[in-house]
Amino acid sequence: MITAPDCVFCKIVAGELPAEVLGRSDAAIAFRDLNPQAPFHALVVPFDHHENAAASAAADPASLGHVVALADEVAQAAGNADYRLVLNTGAGAGQTVFHTHVHVLAGSTGMTEAL
Ligand code: 5GP
Ligand code: ZN
Q1: What share of the chain is helix, strand, coil (3-state, %, to 5)?
Q2: Are 33 and 79 in contact (CB under 8 A)?
Q3: Which of 17, 46, 97, 107 qualifies as a cystine partner to 11, CB 3.0-4.6 A?
Q4: Which InterPro entries does this UniProt record tie to the protein (predicted)?
């Protein structure tokens, strides 16, 4: 597994930091966002540390497929047939944690809502 020191999501993957885990696969983990921006707000994080989705895609294209599959699983399990997936890339787009993660947002509508 690829890890980075002092990465909060690597620590959650390793079980070194607590999180409300909603599901996991052999390649990714899903947990509730600490600061929810929608009635349902989960994060899905591939185990391997890369700084954003494009870097994950370049290093391991299948990893993003695993992330989307787990995102669908946890959204459906929480009763959300419809949901949005958001991938912030770069500080200017609001990225604050530089380990690839997909936001899974449900329970509200509107692409213009702030994240
Ligand atoms: P970004 O802004 O990088 O796309 O999203 C990072 C997200 O991670 C934010 O929504 C923030 O609330 C969440 N977050 C940051 N640190 C933690 C943490 O330690 N635990 C959990 N569950 N969420 C976190
Ligand atoms: Zn990491």
Answers
A1: 30, 20, 50
A2: no
A3: 17
A4: Histidine_triad_CS (IPR019808), Histidine_triad_HIT (IPR001310), HIT-like (IPR011146), HIT-like_sf (IPR036265)
ipTM (interface pTM) = 0.99
Identify the pLDDT of residue 113: 60
- pTM here? 0.95
**Ligand nearest 14 Cα, by number?**
2
- The CATH fold assigned to 8-106 is HIT family, subunit A (3.30.428)
Which regions in the chain score pLDDT beneath 50? none
pLDDT (0 to 100) of residue 28: 98
Active site residue 101: yes
Provide the pLDDT for residue 65.
Answer: 97
Phi then psi for residue 17, to 5 deg, are -125, 140
Domain ranges of the chain: 8-106
Say what the pLDDT of residue 111 is: 54
